[in-house]
Amino acid sequence: MDKIKVRGGTRLSGKVKVSGAKNAVLPIIAAALLPESGVSVIHDVPALDDVHTISEVLRALNAQVTYADGKLTVDSTTVNHTETPYEWVRKMRASFLVMGPLLARKGNARISLPGGCAIGTRPIDQHLKGFEAMGATIEHGHGYIEASVNGRLRGCKIYLDIASVGATENIMMAATLADGTTIIENAAQEPEVVDLANYLNAMGAKVRGAGTGTIKIEGVEQLYGANHTVIPDRIEAGTFMVAAAITRGDVYIEGAISDHLRPVIAKLREMGVIVKEEENGVRVTATGKLKAVNVKTLPHPGFPTDMQSQFMALMLTAEGSSVISETVFENRFMHVDEFKRMGAHIKIEGRSAVIKGEARLTGAEVTSTDLRAGAALVLAGLIAEGQTEVGGLQHIDRGYVDFTEKLRGLGADISRLSEEEEARKAAEEAALASGNVVKFRTSYA
Ligand SMILES: CC(=O)N[C@H]1[C@@H](OP(=O)(O)OP(=O)(O)OC[C@H]2O[C@@H](n3ccc(=O)[nH]c3=O)[C@H](O)[C@@H]2O)O[C@H](CO)[C@@H](O)[C@@H]1O
Ligand SMILES: C=C(OP(=O)(O)O)C(=O)O
């Protein structure tokens, strides 16, 4: 398995460009299953493992999907399968987002039950409650959920018990082709929900109110493939904002949309970080001591849980103790033990963590437990004394495009090595040190 090696101590500076948002593009690609005619062309699609996974899900349903240079083309006119096996849902929970489009367009869908993951149990009851309210019959068996409807889904009023992002998106997609009007109350208000609604409307859907707690969807007879450009990734942007702050650097994050980052900007400013909102990005500068703050994760527009572990890394450098309350996922503190391996003092009390500031971090071998935890460990490595080796990169690859390269572009002492490269490098170094210089071949014919 690959590892990221980072040596702490460099102040980051320069410019970094944000890629398209993972959490926007995944539901958008699922929604590309809806049109019965026309081709969708989606721009600014990040080259992520998750994008590859959802593309494979669509191909397994018999859609034609091509990807090159950030442009993804989907032709769903040929879709004739309605089953998504465990293989794909296990890799990425967002695969479950094809249920709404399949049910709306084909009248049935058989999707593997996602199961829990490293950050929580993550049930899907709100998705299913919505589909049932729209007239679908739901059956569970052999690890699968099968949903079917006689004729079309019916528009109705659905109150979500939790403002779930995925449930809002799945129900919204299903409702575009339903008979009548659907109203989702206590809907998720994340910018990615708005981006999905914009794409659906570009295909001919009638979605109003996305970005508020009440979304109204008037069902239409048919949708048509459309062009769409994905919004920049606010979590990637936030991660680089923290990278600038943690190294007391000066970084311009091109493409970051301030309005999507209100809670992150507010908390950085509260800590004493300078954040300048510019027309096409934000500039983050930090020097000297930062103040401890308290953070509570909440659905948008609250502080995003996907920024929690990166902020924990930053809090380790503040003066005094900070508290994080994680209210979105019940088990999103797995990175704490990894931070402790680097010398951090963090105490978990129920769903809160108390983070002691002014930590003297030392480089260590650590493992990513989820996508954001992996990024946070790299951030901690940027300020640790000596070398940090971060493993479990399959998590980081799900959600960050060229993470190592982008950080190196800002001056970080960072590299990514495969096990093979690492062994070869070590042998070369040993040979050089002994004066016995030999040429190593990486392969033999
Ligand atoms: C691909 C994608 O967009 N992923 C994001 C999405 O995940 P996802 O859409 O899975 O997150 P949800 O908003 O659905 O989950 C929020 C909370 O609601 C609970 N829940 C959810 C659905 C349900 O039917 N029942 C239920 O109890 C979950 O277990 C969790 O505790 O939003 C999360 C919360 O901002 C982010 O961390 C993820 O990065
Ligand atoms: C939790 C995340 O993603 P997912 O919902 O795809 O697991 C994330 O992006 O931090």
TrEMBL record:
Which residues does UDP-N-acetyl-alpha-D-glucosamine bind?
A: 93, 122-126, 306, 328
Q: What is its main location?
A: cytoplasm
Main enzyme class: transferase
In short, the EC number is 2.5.1.7
Q: Which reaction does it catalyse?
A: phosphoenolpyruvate + UDP-N-acetyl-alpha-D-glucosamine = UDP-N-acetyl-3-O-(1-carboxyvinyl)-alpha-D-glucosamine + phosphate
Where it sits in the cell: the answer is: Cytoplasm
Q: In Gene Ontology terms, what is one molecular function of this protein?
A: UDP-N-acetylglucosamine 1-carboxyvinyltransferase activity
**BP GO terms, sorted:** cell division; cell wall organization; peptidoglycan biosynthetic process; regulation of cell shape; UDP-N-acetylgalactosamine biosynthetic process
Residues annotated as domain Enolpyruvate transferase: 6-407
Which Gene Ontology cellular-component terms appear in the entry? cytoplasm
* One Pfam family this sequence matches: EPSP_synthase
Annotated SUPFAM superfamilies: EPT/RTPC-like (SSF55205)
Write out the entry's keywords from A to Z.
Answer: Cell cycle, Cell division, Cell shape, Cell wall biogenesis/degradation, Cytoplasm, Peptidoglycan synthesis, Pyruvate, Transferase
Q: In which pathway does it act?
A: Cell wall biogenesis; peptidoglycan biosynthesis
Q: Which residues form the active site?
A: 117 (proton donor)
| Residues involved in phosphoenolpyruvate binding | 22-23
The domain of life for this entry's organism is Bacteria
The record's PANTHER family line, in alphabetical order, gives:
UDP-N-ACETYLGLUCOSAMINE 1-CARBOXYVINYLTRANSFERASE (PTHR43783)
Official protein name in the record? UDP-N-acetylglucosamine 1-carboxyvinyltransferase
Species for this entry: Ammoniphilus oxalaticus
Gene for this protein? murA
